[in-house]
Structure formats: C-alpha cells, structure tokens
Amino acid sequence: METPLLIFNENGIYCQEADVYLDPWHPVDRAIITHGHADHSRYGNKEYITHKNNVPIIKHRLGDILVHGKEYNEKFVVNNVTFSLHPAGHIIGSSQVRVEHKGEVWVFSGDYKLEDDGISTPFEPVKCHTFITECTFGIPPFKWMPQGEVFKDINQWWANNREEGKTSVLFGYSLGKAQRLLKYLDTSIGEIYTHGAIENMTEVLRNQAQFPPTTLITRDTKKKDLLGNIVLAPPSAHGSTWIRKMVPFVTASASGWMAFRGARRRRAIDKGFVLSDHCDWEELLTAIKSTGAEKIIATHGYTEIFSRYLRAQGYDARTEETQFEGEVDEVHIEKKEKEEL
C-alpha cells in the first residue's frame, strides 16, 4: 500500500517524501509553520519555514532560530515535493500549507477563519484532494455575529463603565485576539492600557497593521490613571496580583467559548463577548466545500461529531490525534462546557 502524502506520527504531520514536518510538536530537522501560536510553532527545530509576516512573531517567541520567510502563493520544492503557503485568515502571518506530489494535492489548514478581521490576510480556499481541518467549534450551536456588531457592543460596554468611574479590563490572547480588539477600540472613549505580554507582541506587529496608541502598565502606573480607561490583558492575568491595583474594575472576555451558557460565571467574568479567530460551524462547512476535497481529516476540536456529520454528507472523513489546542488558554474548561450543549 502506498504511503499517504502526509502522515501523522509521534512528532507531528510528516511528509515522508520531502522529509518535512508541518507544525511539529517535537523538535525535527525541518518544519513548515502555519502561524505563531505556541501549539503550532514550538522551540527546538533546526530549520523553520513560514510566511514572511510570521517571521518576526516566531523570532520574538523562540529567539535566535534559523527561519526562512515565504510569500503567499510562492512555490518551493523540497526533494521533488512542491509546497506553497496560502492565507488562513486566523491571525497576522497565518497560512495554510499546500503540498503537491505526482499530481496529488493535500492542504493543511492550520487554524483559520473566514471573516475578514481587517488585520490578517483573508482566508483563500485552495483546491485539493485531501483537506486537513481543525474543528475547534465544529458543532451547530456555534454561530458568530459579524465582528462589527461585537465591537459596537464592546465599545458601548467600555463607555458605560467609564460613566460609572470604573476601569474596563478586557481579556484576549496576546497574539491575534489582542491586536484584533485593539484595532477596533474607540479611542474617543478613553485611553488604552496594556499588559506587558500584549504590549510586547503588539510592538512586534505595529509595522504590519494600523493600531491605536497604547500605554504599558508599569509599577509606576497609578490607579487614578486607569479609571474610565480600558486595559487589554491576557486571560492568565485574571485573578493575579497584577490586576488588584485596578479596583474598581469590570472584567470581560472576548472568546468563542463565551457562546456557552455559564462560561462567564465559571471564569468569574462580568461580561462575555463572542469573538473567535476560528471558524464557526457554517464557516467550517463552507471552507471545506470550497476546497473541492473529497477526503477530510479533522484534527482538533469536536473531531468525532464533525467527521461523522461530514461522512453523512458524502465525504471520506476521518479524525487524527494532534497536540494542537485551539483556543489554548481556555481548553481546560472545554469538557465542562461541551456538556451544556
């Protein structure tokens, strides 16, 4: 039996013909990286290949590495296998990986979303025979509102808090979600303050998108400086000593998981905004249909439910285990929230 073009082994997704891994979870000689989140770009590989806009991100995270930046749609050949990177729309610099050999085409999507967020290159479908897809939110109850409506709600929430003399603390991942939030915050309401993790990553990305000015919170920042303004912080800052100087404050989280009943309560969050950098149910199905693929491999998320649905629609669909984690900071509560649907 002929070996598939891409296989899943103990190190990651492997192209044996090229001796190349895609987003490996253990150190390998040569790795093609879809984007900068920690579950997809890990330390220890001898050589990295990624989109040029992702190069500063992974250098910031991983330090002095050997990395080659590619343009979207730029073909490169490794041991007679042709690769190219294509926009995934997930975060700045995110890519899908197209792999072609002897007329067979596979696409590994990494993480992706269909809505144009205005800061990352929008998702482009790539025709293929086999499509490897995430399904972080791969069940019908997940249905996203247009981001314009979400940001209108976020800015109104901030304005209301300002009227009450309170600091607004908004949680989002330091890479991707934070910059998306920052892009659309209404600075006519007040000033934007940032946690160090978000400030540092945003500085790496400022030459790739237009962001409003921010002020880093330091030991010298006074509580009175923050009152009525908004603070962007990673989810890990919630409940920390760092946040205590902001009293009185109101908290909110921007995440796809906010679609679950009880999500805010379990996180002790005052307000939840449903905003994800991943596809909802309908977007996943739209993306898959647009590839023309007959074979689908579901990797992380609601894999069994999603692949079973795809098989009922006539696809040759199966699942594979990976070490990708979706919305990584909130995976620890995923099981509890699945039970509510």
Automatic annotation (TrEMBL):
One of its GO terms (molecular function) is ligase activity. InterPro entries: MBL (IPR050698), RibonucZ/Hydroxyglut_hydro (IPR036866), Xnuc_lig_assoc (IPR026360). It comes from the Bacteria. Gene3D superfamilies: Ribonuclease Z/Hydroxyacylglutathione hydrolase-like (3.60.15.10). Keywords: Ligase. This is DNA ligase-associated DEXH box helicase.
